[in-house]
Write a structure and sequence with these properties.
Guanine Nucleotide Dissociation Inhibitor, domain 1, seven-stranded mixed β-sheet, oxidoreductase activity, five-stranded parallel β-sheet, 17 helices, Amino_oxidase, alpha/beta
Length: 446
């Protein structure tokens, strides 16, 4: 049995089913996908959480091939990244000669700061084989200091404030200066260098395709998981009452703070890390369906925490996903900084929308007049809040997981918080559990 139908849980269930297991997935919400869910309204496909997929998402592409929908994903030909600064957006084409030309010409950095980036070369080369999704110990070796500390030591304040902090903040939706250097090296190698993936349909196109091949029960809230003999007992509630089932194995795929609540028998060292060593970030996402399509060629615009109110990222989703908006109309996705949104969680959805529109008027004048409708989603928690030491704790957490345990864990807190990181964790959980079941259950397991 798998608890949670986000991409980590669905991946684990699908891989277990491939190995001959009979799997049931329980999901408390009324839809699958978790933070990759989407809704459709008035011809718009509105993502409620994640929007941007990186070209380095190999685990995602492999899963898409295995479920037969690889044609739904494609490289974005020339992504355009904008950085908001001083009321303007400075755009840089993502990669190739055009990107180099744009970077040389951009007034975001002084000539001195641009030449100073050469001091990153040695670290960039050393990090190439370590900044990945699967080798957590190797990535932990890059977790040496915060981005701000590195910039003070090797670069300068301008490079940090005008370039690195807004780019990282826009990607991770937390204060970029506080992130670990492991996050910076990872971003350079696996996000910026690899380009972006476009997709046809909502970002949950993969989750829905995987779920269609599984036994998924939505509106089923798991109350507890407990060990029982060689397996486990899962207790859950649905509209039909409270249920209990003895199973041979379980994958728990819920946010880190909820794991210990559902599974009190969790090993103490693992429970301690989840409870005390991994900080959580809250995400508020605001989607704006527009009656007109903005002229900006940008795929993404990122901003430092002091530039556009609380806005970290503006994704021009009509430029990223064909069919996201009807012809001639636009769809923007706005993610707000954790540090800005968290003390304001008491605000109403409309208050969040109003705050976002006031800030967006700086870079998209008149946008308030072309809003057809808005959609607000709150993820509490949303993902890990990484800083110096986080990747070392993640590596330690993965080492502590018993591969023979009949209760396994999956989720983006076990790696780099991302859709691909979630899929990797689901793959690993299925691999461990199927091996554990195989020692005692050579035939298909429940």
């Amino acid at each position: 049995m798998v608890v949670g139908a986000g991409v980590a849980g669905l991946t684990a269930a699908f891989r277990l089913q491939q190995r001959g297991c009979d799997v049931t997935v329980l999901e408390s919400e009324d839809r699958v996908g978790g933070k990759t869910a989407s809704v459709q309204s008035d011809g718009f496909v509105v993502n409620t959480g994640a929007t941007v997929l990186a070209g380095s998402y190999e685990a995602l592409l492999e899963l898409a091939r295995d479920v037969g929908i690889s044609e739904r994903f494609f490289p974005v030909p020339t992504p355009v990244i904008g950085v908001a600064k001083g009321g303007r957006v400075y755009t840089i084409r993502g990669g190739g000669l055009g990107g180099l030309v744009d970077f040389v010409r951009t007034p975001l950095l002084s000539v001195r700061s641009k030449f100073g980036l050469a001091r990153m070369a040695s670290g960039l080369l050393r990090s190439r084989t370590r900044a990945g999704y699967e080798d957590h110990d190797a990535r932990a070796e890059l977790d040496t200091e915060t981005v701000a500390q590195y910039c003070r030591r090797r670069l300068n304040a301008e490079t940090c404030d005008h370039l690195l902090a807004p780019v990282l903040g826009g990607i991770f939706v937390v204060e970029g200066r506080d992130l670990s250097m492991a996050d910076l090296w990872f971003t350079l190698w696996k996000v910026l260098r690899g380009g972006l993936l476009g997709y046809r349909g909502g970002v949950d196109v993969l989750a829905r395709a995987v779920a269609a091949r599984l036994d998924v029960r939505t509106n089923a809230t798991v109350l507890a998981v407990s060990r029982s003999g060689d397996g486990a007992v899962v207790r859950w509630a649905s509209e039909h009452g409270v249920h209990e089932r003895q199973v041979d194995g379980v994958v728990i795929s819920v946010p880190a703070p909820q794991v210990g609540e559902l599974f009190p028998e969790l090993a103490a060292p693992i429970a301690s890390i989840l409870r005390s060593c991994l900080q959580q970030a809250n995400f508020v996402a605001v989607r704006l369906a527009l009656t007109e399509r903005p002229r900006s060629p940008a795929t993404l615009v990122v901003a430092g925490p002091d530039e556009l109110g609380g806005i970290a990222t503006v994704s021009y989703e009509h430029n990223l996903s064909p069919g996201a908006a009807p012809a001639g109309k636009g769809l923007l996705g706005v993610l707000l900084y954790h540090e800005w949104a968290t003390p304001r969680l008491g605000m109403s959805d409309q208050e969040f929308v109003d705050a976002v529109l006031r800030s967006l008027e700086v870079i998209e004048p008149g946008i308030s007049k072309i809003v057809q409708f808005s959609h607000v989603t709150r993820w509490i928690p949303g993902a890990l809040k990484s800083t110096h030491g986080t990747h070392r704790q993640i590596a330690r957490l993965n080492r502590l997981i018993d591969p023979d345990d009949r209760v396994q864990l999956a989720g983006d807190y076990l790696g780099v918080p991302s859709v691909n990181g979630s899929i990797v964790s689901g793959d690993k959980a299925a691999e461990r559990l199927s091996a554990a079941l195989g020692t005692a259950f050579p035939a298909a397991a429940t």
